[in-house]
Write a structure and sequence with these properties.
With about 350 residues, the chain is of the alpha+beta class. The chain has 2 domains: about 190 residues, 2-Layer Sandwich (Fructose-1,6-Bisphosphatase, Chain A, domain 1), CATH 3.30.540; about 130 residues, D-Maltodextrin-Binding Protein, domain 2, CATH 3.40.190. The protein has 10 helices and 15 strands. The strands form 3 sheets. It has an 8-stranded mixed β-sheet, sandwiched between helices. It has a 5-stranded mixed β-sheet with strand order 10-9-11-15-13, sandwiched between helices. The chain has a two-stranded antiparallel sheet with strand order 12-14. β6 and β7 form a beta hairpin. The C terminus is likely disordered. Bound molecules: 2,5-anhydro-1,6-di-O-phosphono-D-mannitol and magnesium ion. Magnesium ion binds next to β3.
Length: about 350
């Protein structure tokens, strides 16, 4: 007997039924995200045809001005959500200031933060890219929301999702009740359940980091990464290294194969050491998803979901993946290993 086909709509509705008080608004919000994802996926798949259809700023064969894909994705997500009455405010990695719901539309009780097209430097080489979404409840008392609605801790998320535009387009989401994955069947234009109840495998031995930044890391970060590359780690053999340079794709692999993804603090500018990834649009939603799959997300010192955001574009260091790997990273970064006298690293 062939496997039952479950569309994302059916799955989300089934999940909603397990919450007796649910109004359906949240379900609709998730569904709005899937619609935006399908439209972006269609455009991303055309990116290789740029020679034929025209590059950014050009007029294409239809006489339309071709947009940068990240600007296009930003606009599509905003326009898919602004009029629905489900959101009170939005925030995007691409927009410096909060995105307000236009006056002519009603507002609702949810808040959406998103990175419309992450890893966009991969577009020109046909590499995988993604979109990331984080959903909170409205906190402020004002009708149209304010920045306090955006500045919520990762723990307060009620949902998070990412879409990977890879060899297939997949959507992975959590509402705090496990992590589920859907693959877009382009022939019917539907996301179909392909990965129910994803759990990050234990003891994967892959590490993912931009090692070109080695000279900008501190000794603790180097010591941890050297440990993974040594035979002293739990697996008894060096971890394999994989790095796409697209957070969604690197974390997607980590979710399915285990191991750890990192973007540590850089001391390139020693007066202003900094992580690269954005807390609200990247680290917190991916951290929520990985935690729901049995993994853990840290900035090297504390759970990413516990960080109190101060700025909507705040950056953070990221260590995310298998719980044991990330906890060990925390031990190195917080210098506990050093204190235990285990810091000497023969590979350094
Ligand atoms: P972006 O939001 O400008 O696309 O940058 C975020 C991306 C992540 O997807 C990826 O993990 C990281 O930047 C790669 O950075 P680097 O090229 O420094 O390794
Ligand atoms: Mg990004």
């Amino acid at each position: 007997m062939s496997q039952e086909i479950i569309t994302i709509e059916r799955f989300i509705l089934q999940q909603e039924r397990s919450f007796p008080g649910a109004t359906g608004e949240f379900t609709q919000l998730l569904y709005d995200i899937t619609l935006a994802a399908k439209i972006i996926s269609r455009e991303v798949n055309k990116a290789g045809l740029v020679e034929i259809l025209g590059s950014t700023g050009d007029k294409n064969i239809h006489g339309e001005t071709v947009q940068k894909l990240d600007e296009f994705a930003n606009r599509i997500i905003f326009q898919s959500m602004d009029h629905t009455g489900r959101l009170c405010i939005m925030g995007s990695e691409e927009s410096e200031t909060p995105l307000l719901i236009p006056d002519e539309y009603p507002t609702g009780k949810y808040v959406l933060l998103f990175d419309p097209l992450d890893g966009s430097s991969n577009i020109d080489v046909n590499g995988s890219i993604g979109s990331i979404f984080s959903i909170h409840r409205k906190k402020s008392k004002t009708e149209r929301g304010d920045v306090s609605d955006l500045l919520q801790k990762g723990y307060e998320q009620v949902g998070a999702a990412y879409v990977i535009y890879g060899s297939s387009t997949m959507l992975i989401y959590t509402t705090g009740n496990g992590v589920h994955g859907f693959t877009l069947d382009p022939s019917v234009g539907e996301f179909l359940l392909s990965h129910p109840h994803i759990e990050i495998p234990k003891n994967g031995n892959i590490y993912s980091v931009n090692e070109g930044n080695y000279i900008y890391w501190d000794d603790k970060t180097r010591a941890y990464i050297n440990h993974l590359k040594s035979e002293d780690n739990h697996s008894g053999k060096p971890y394999s290294h994989r790095y796409i340079g697209s957070m969604v794709a690197d974390i997607h692999r980590t979710l399915l194969n285990g191991g750890i993804f990192m973007y540590p603090v850089s001391y390139k500018n020693p007066d202003k050491p900094s992580g690269k990834l954005r807390l609200l649009y990247e680290a917190a939603p991916m951290g929520f998803i990985i935690s729901q799959a049995g993994g853990y997300a840290s900035d090297g010192h504390q759970n990413i979901l516990e960080i109190e955001p101060r700025d909507i574009h705040q950056r953070t260091a990221v260590f995310i993946g298998d719980k044991d790997d990330v906890l060990l990273a925390e031990k190195y970064i917080s210098a506990e290993i050093e204190k235990e006298g285990k810091y000497a690293d023969k590979n350094q």
